[in-house]
């Protein structure tokens, strides 16, 4: 397969929007599809606004902003993705829905199209299960916010074609990203290692030992991470975070180390998903933080 030029992004939510921006900024023609009416167009508008902020700060020229926007094409039907060289799926984190999308893609796209999923925690092997050409399905796991975060996990399964994997690992740096080759296993590398970061903080909260603000402030101040666990859960989405935890919990035979926290589950049931709903562990937009260093 040749180096990809026409990229299709399926799902224009938090991640799809960011991934479409990365691809368009790297010079690719990008077709964006979402089942929700107007979502792909809204993502294009939001990318335009994000880039306009960079222009106003002198970090991007107006000509480059316009050229990037011109490369983004919202489309209404999956059929419009027929001539894509590479598809990145970034839809809802549900195996049945992802299955249906990839099965449709097999009928829409040519056999040369490389198929990628941005799943954060589902098994890529399970997503490929039942496909006619499972060797061309990879995980291409971007992190949030995709235009900013450098790392991309390139997830291969036992069926993966090594030549396609090599091509992906060589291509990802052209997007300004750092690839890491990862075998398909629960949570890949980052999301698996991140579980204790979240879970121990949640235990402290549930034991009323410290507030989210204090835990976040302590960890950002001392670990050098840009966001603490609660601010990060609000950014990622508590629903996405819970789905990842539940997947790992099941995959590791309900080991207590991965047990989902009540305080996350309760918020998800109440529709408090973080920034995208205006309320998570914090209200959004967040009032200016008062740094009061008492534990609770
Ligand atoms: P989101 O909820 O913001 O967006 C999902 C979008 O997919 C929505 O616009 C929805 O209308 C659309 N959609 C749902 N079903 C569809 C279908 N059948 N066809 C086309 N569009 C469909 O979700 P988000 O956060 O962007 O996550 C997307 C994927 O990326 C998930 O697999 C998630 O696990 C993964 N991911 C999420 C990260 C995060 O920080 N939120 C980080 C890395 C990966």
From TrEMBL:
Source organism superkingdom: Bacteria
Keyword NAD: yes
Included range, full protein: 1 to 296 of 466
Name of the protein this chain belongs to: 3-hydroxyacyl-CoA dehydrogenase PaaC
Molecular-function annotations in GO: NAD+ binding; oxidoreductase activity, acting on the CH-OH group of donors, NAD or NADP as acceptor
Biological process according to GO: fatty acid metabolic process
Key word Iron-sulfur present: no
Annotated transmembrane regions: none
Domain 3-hydroxyacyl-CoA dehydrogenase NAD binding: 6-184
Keywords tagged on the record: NAD, Oxidoreductase
Domain 3-hydroxyacyl-CoA dehydrogenase C-terminal: 187-282
